[in-house]
Amino acid sequence: MLKIAAYHSPTTLIEAAALLAEDGRTAIAGGTDLLVNPRYMVGVREVVDIRRLGLNYIRVENGWLYIGAGATMRTVAQRVELQGLANGILARGAAVCGSPNIRNMATLAGNIASALPSADTPPALLALDAEVVLVGMRGERVVPLDSFFVGPAKSVRERDLIRELRIPLAGSNALRGGFYKIGRTAEDISMVNAAATLKIQDGKISMARLVLGAVAPVPLRVSRAEEALVGQAATEETFQRVAEIVRDEVRPITDHRATAEYRRRISAVATVRALRQAAGLATPGEEWQHA
Ligand SMILES: Cc1cc2nc3c(=O)[nH]c(=O)nc-3n(C[C@H](O)[C@H](O)[C@H](O)COP(=O)(O)OP(=O)(O)OC[C@H]3O[C@@H](n4cnc5c(N)ncnc54)[C@H](O)[C@@H]3O)c2cc1C
Predict the structure, then answer these.
(1) Across-strand partners of 211?
(2) CA of 245 to the centre of ligand 1 (A)
(3) What's the pLDDT at 287?
(4) pLDDT at 290
């Protein structure tokens, strides 16, 4: 358990950014990672609570969907705006993040800030072309999520606060999505997860995003697979072919959850199931999680 020497509860972003500029301080949102994960035990002495900053919102405005840093996994899983976006892939990712107790506290922004390759929501957010809005002493900057993660538990965030995540909605009516998580139990971190978005015109795929989690140092967008999907018929045969590309491209590790070889094999399974969902070909019983 983290030993905390001081607790700060700012009410403005300027105050929060100034507090976080000091060494030994870190943001706390739900605390579900920060308070229990051993990697924070060294170096973190003071916490800066972000829950009084007024960031507990999800709203649609000017063609974007904004998710404030205070929004919990439970809220993200339940909101209609997210359930209706690309077959609800982000809502589905949030709905399988830990147990109900965890989802009541854990935030979407905390899941991104932790930058763990096995996290459940980055693949869906990447497949939706999300961006991260950061605030710090140098002001505000917007980073495409595609260039946010740089390694396990490492991102370009530095000391900045994630104020919100935003998803472009232009053309999203035509976007179909799929998400599939494979874990040891229903409440465990993923051994592998996969998210896909497709646009399909006259039976042929005109746009594809395919992102896998827990198979590389960062959530992995499999560009070779995306290229192989475009122009092809949205069929089982195409998806099986693409799954072989994914199997070649992933760079998993062996840890206490799974061996690298097992992860490589199930990355193909998760890929096919996410793509089938996106194409409307999923069969009952292979909805969105396997434990
Ligand atoms: C039992 C258990 C099960 C879990 N299961 C899953 C799972 O199935 N899938 C999964 O993906 N994760 C899982 N997790 C991990 C964790 O719940 C998630 O990563 C969660 O989304 C973290 O959010 P939080 O608000 O609790 O973050 P916190 O714990 O408060 O913070 C985590 C990190 O993010 C930083 N941070 C938080 N908010 C911000 C912000 N707005 N700006 C800048 N930095 C910020 C903190 O400084 C800290 O470094 C599990 C954890 C536990 C304890």
Answers:
(1) 195, 221
(2) 31
(3) 62
(4) 66
Q: How far is the CA of 107 from the centre of ligand 1 (A)?
A: 7
Whose CA is closest to atom 33 on ligand 1? 114
- Token pair listed for 241: 């072919």
Q: Whose C-alpha lies nearest to ligand 1, atom 39?
A: 110
Pairing type for strands 25-28 and 46-49 reads parallel
Please choose, from the candidates 91, 120, 123, the residue with its C-alpha nearest in 3D space to the C-alpha of residue 32: 120
Q: List all residues whose CB is within 6 A of at least one atom of ligand 1.
A: 26-34, 36, 50, 69, 97-98, 102, 105-107, 109-111, 113-114, 119-120, 161-162, 189
Q: Assign a CATH topology to domain 175-290.
A: Enolase-like; domain 1 (3.30.390)
Reported as a single tens digit per residue, the pLDDT across 9-60 is: 999 999 999 999 999 999 999 999 999 887 887 778 899 999 999 999 999 9
- Residue 136 Cα, ligand 1 centroid: separation in angstroms? 20
Q: pLDDT tens across 129-149, in order?
A: 999 999 999 999 999 999 999
pLDDT below 70 — which residues of the chain? 1, 285, 287-291
Tokens of residue 245, six digits: 């590309």
124 closest CA partner among 154, 94, 99: 94
Exposure of 220 by Cβ count < 10 A (0-12 exposed, 13-18 middle, 19+ buried)?
A: buried
Atom in ligand 1 nearest the alpha carbon of residue 99: 3
Q: Check: CATH 3.40.50.2300 for 58-168?
A: no
pLDDT value of residue 178:
97
